[in-house]
Amino acid sequence: MRSYQNFIGGEWGGAKSGKTFQNQNPADTREVVGEYPSSGSEEARQAIDAAAAAFPAWAATTSVARGRVLSKASQLLEARKAELAELLTREEGKTLAEATGEVQRACDIFRFFGGLSYTIGGQTIPHDLPQNLLFTRREPLGVVGLITPWNFPIAIPAWKLAPALVSGNAVVLKPASQAPAMSMELAKVLAEAGLPKGVFNVVTGDGRAVGGELATNANVAALSFTGSLKVGAQVYQQLAQRMARAQMEMGGKNPTIVLADADLDLAARLVATAGFGLTGQACTATSRVIVEKSVAAQFTEKLIEKAKAIVVGNGLKQGVTMGPAVNEQEFKGNFDYIDIAKNEGGTVAYGGARLSDGELAHGFFMQPTIITGVTPPMRIAREEVFGPVIAIIAVENFDEAIAVANGVDVGLSASIVTRDLKKAMLYSERIQAGVVKINQISTGLALQAPFGGVKKSSTDSFKEQGAGAIDFYTRIKTVYLDYSA
Ligand code: NAD
Q1: 157 in ligand 1 pocket by Cβ < 6 Å?
Q2: Nearest 5°: CA angle at 251, between 28 and 315?
Q3: How far apart are CA 188 and CA 191, in angstroms?
Q4: Digit-coded pLDDT (tens) for 15-31
Q5: Pairing of strands 245-249, 220-226
Q6: Is the CB of 211 under 6 A from ligand 1?
Q7: At what angle do helices 155-166 and 63-79 cross, to 10 degrees?
């Protein structure tokens, strides 16, 4: 077991109460993976104060100097990739291959923003008059709060932290309690890379107390949140009340449309990868397949074959392709949704059961699950499950498929499988989603491209990732200079 403390002002320390909480390995709950301080608003305030004290000196450095720290952090992370991936799997449950990919993503994000540091600047604008210079400066905001979910415990902190830091902000991060280890390791790596004390602070503990302090404290200039709609909506209101800058990224109910002309083997492979990969615990996971009736039965058969081939087990074990649910609550939630779907008239075409034989007895393992006979009003067709459960909705044609896809109040990622270029392009125009994938999995993002949802998936104010991520973490100042006199 690893024992961690909060990282505040460059020092490690426990919660004032002395209380801690522990995390178990979801593949084997007999193993305790980490112990963390049960902090509250007081520790969050200390971290905010430490960040506020460190901000002026950090903001006064050049973006290039800050970028060097990020590039160094990327190298240090890469050197520890295997160790961190194993720890990530133990704490969150995803397979070692998935965890290794995620740690690599964090390395790449730091490398990307390290390089981008050479380009962060303003703009010159033609003035109406001669001998006048009109230009903009990009400035950091101050103390920025970050609140992150458990499902990508290193990639999401990294994709918020890197643009925040390179822009010159000081940061307080509150990671999700289900998987804080990676955030703690990021603090170690950044300190080793030369980040000054107080520029990055991490506080673990209760969401309402620690996260609530970040949302309400007047010294936090902006807050970037990724998590559930329920919590995001509440935090957004707290930020709006004091007119603080907000970036809220929440869940989805991501559709994959399968048209009659599609290569059905490809469609089944894409849907199985995007729906069951990462145990379905991705915000961009495919959770609805909207398929033309004429090929629905054939497609479903092929998807069942893919589901049967999935090897469920401890993600550290070679050959395992799907790990456990992250904890008991999420695990139970998955079965609740399967019951709700059955009660509303859906049929479990495959899966639906807990797996507890032999080595699986002490973990939160379940079969990948396919539910057919789903209609758009059913809850399984509208609400995020966040587990390996795919709902299949059969429709008459392309237009109905789009109407069904758009008939929910969220819009994060959306994919289509077809050979018809015109329909694929019309889909990209008409679908209400932040990301559109054509003949690709709905999960998986390019770190250099903008990412974010629409509708209730996001406040849709600023994009994350890519060079545009800097926009959220900086403000523009316009400077007028007259040298004619
Ligand atoms: P969650 O909303 O339960 O928790 C997210 C974070 O908020 C955690 O750090 C939690 O401790 C904190 N929190 C809880 N209550 C709080 C409060 N009252 N005030 C302030 N902070 C509080 O979400 P989760 O279960 O960790 O993550 C899963 C959700 O995240 C899913 O809905 C998923 O779709 C979404 N998600 C979205 C994206 C995206 O980029 N859009 C990416 C990954 C996950």
Answers
A1: no
A2: 25
A3: 5
A4: 999 999 999 999 999 99
A5: parallel
A6: yes
A7: 160
Exposure b/e, 468-480, CB count within 10 A at least 16 = b: ebbbbbbbeeeee
- In whole angstroms, give the CA distance from residue 259 to residue 204: 46
Q: At what angle do helices 264-276 and 293-308 cross, to 10 degrees?
A: 50
Q: Tell me if residue 283 is catalytic.
A: yes
Q: How far is CA 92 from the centre of its chain?
A: 14
Tell me the average pLDDT across 89-96: 98
Among the listed residues 156, 283, 303, 371, the single catalytic one is 283
Mean pLDDT (whole number) for 225-231: 98
H-run or E-run covering 30: strand 28-37
Q: How far is the centre of ligand 1, averaged over its atoms, from the C-alpha of 37 (Å)?
A: 19
Averaged pLDDT for residues 218-243? 98
Number of neighbours of residue 276 by Cβ within 10 angstroms:
27
Which residues of 351-425 form beta strands (DSSP E)?
Answer: 369-372, 389-395, 410-411, 413-417
For 300-315, what is the mean pLDDT? 98
Q: What is the pLDDT of residue 351?
A: 98
Residues 6+ apart with CB under 8 A from 5: 12, 13, 14, 37
Token readout for 226 is: 């990724």
8 Å CB contact between 402 and 449: no
Rounded to whole angstroms, the Cα distance separating 96 from 104 reads: 12
- How does pLDDT run across 35-55, given as a tens digit for each residue? 999 999 999 999 999 999 999
- Does the Cβ of 203 fall within 6 Å of ligand 1? no
Strand segments, DSSP code E, in 114-263 are 124-125, 132-140, 143-147, 170-174, 200-202, 220-226, 245-249, 254-258
Q: Say what the pLDDT of residue 299 is.
A: 98
Between the two ends of the chain, the Cα-to-Cα distance in Å is 70
- Ligand 1 site, residue 209, Cβ cutoff 6 A: no
Per-residue exposure over 201-225, b if at least 16 CB sit within 10 Å of its own CB, e if not: bbbbbbeebbbbbbbbbeebbbbbb
Question: How far apart are the C-alpha atoms of 475 and 397, rounded to whole Å?
Answer: 46
Q: Which percentage of the chain shows pLDDT scores above 70?
A: 100
The model carries a pTM of 0.98
Burial of 379 (0-12, 13-18, 19+ CB in 10 A): middle
Number of Cβ within 10 Å of residue 319's Cβ equals 7
Tokens of 1: 């077991």
pLDDT band per the 50, 70, 90 thresholds, residue 61: very high
Query: 27: helix, coil or strand?
Result: coil
Question: Whose structure tokens read 């050959």?
Answer: 319
Handedness of CA 313, 316, 319, 321 (dihedral sign): positive
